[in-house]
């Protein structure tokens, strides 16, 4: 593989955290699952999930709880890249608006994404993703005074 080809693969790998965050924003569980290998492993606050089908189910369940959500990704670092595997780490801040009957309200968190990627045909797919959360996890912004209460009667 030429240096140019490897550089292009590195660039594609580097973009993975943003691609992942965008599919979360689109709230399409099948589209999210397509970013993963068929036997992928996802470790997150709701517990571990293995396999593309279960990852789609996991996100279908998560999206049902959100009326809206935004993920800001920053400080992505490509920690290693080869012809077949890449590793990327990124920081994330998430803002979630939960369904009205949820006790979660509006929640802000910060955390990290740690991706291990596998080259499949002509693109990177996520083979392992560790999502860690800390700091602001679980703060109800309305109760804390950081967000106004909903105005639609909720």
Explain what the structure shows.
- This protein has 154 residues and is of the alpha+beta class.
- It has a single domain (3-144), classed as Roll (Nuclear Transport Factor 2, Chain: A).
- 31% of the residues lie in helices and 47% in strands.
- The protein has five helices and six strands; from the N terminus they run H-H-H-E-E-H-E-E-E-E-H.
- The protein has helices spanning 3-14, 16-26, 29-34, 52-65, 141-144; strands at 36-43, 49-50, 66-81, 85-98, 106-120, 123-140.
- It has a six-stranded mixed sheet with strand order 2-1-6-5-4-3.
- The radius of gyration is 17 Å and the shape is globular.
- The N and C termini lie far apart (57 Å).
Q: What is the gist of this entry?
A:
It contains 5 helices and 6 strands, in the order H-H-H-E-E-H-E-E-E-E-H. Helix content is 31%, strand content 47%. It holds the Pfam family SnoaL_4.
């Amino acid at each position: 593989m030429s240096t140019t080809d490897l550089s292009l693969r590195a660039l594609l790998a580097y973009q993975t955290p943003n691609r992942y965050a965008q599919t979360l924003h689109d709230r399409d569980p099948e589209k999210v699952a397509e970013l993963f290998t068929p036997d992928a492993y996802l470790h997150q606050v709701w517990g571990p999930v293995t396999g593309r089908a279960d990852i789609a189910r996991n996100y279908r369940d998560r999206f049902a709880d959100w009326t809206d959500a935004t993920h800001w990704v920053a400080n992505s670092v490509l920690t290693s890249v080869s012809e077949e595997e890449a590793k990327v780490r990124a920081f994330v801040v998430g803002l979630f608006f939960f369904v009205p009957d949820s006790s979660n309200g509006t929640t802000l968190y910060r955390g990290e994404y740690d991706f291990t990627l596998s080259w499949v045909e002509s693109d990177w797919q996520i083979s392992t993703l560790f999502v860690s959360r800390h700091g602001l996890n679980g703060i109800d912004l309305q109760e804390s005074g950081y967000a106004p209460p909903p105005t639609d009667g909720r």
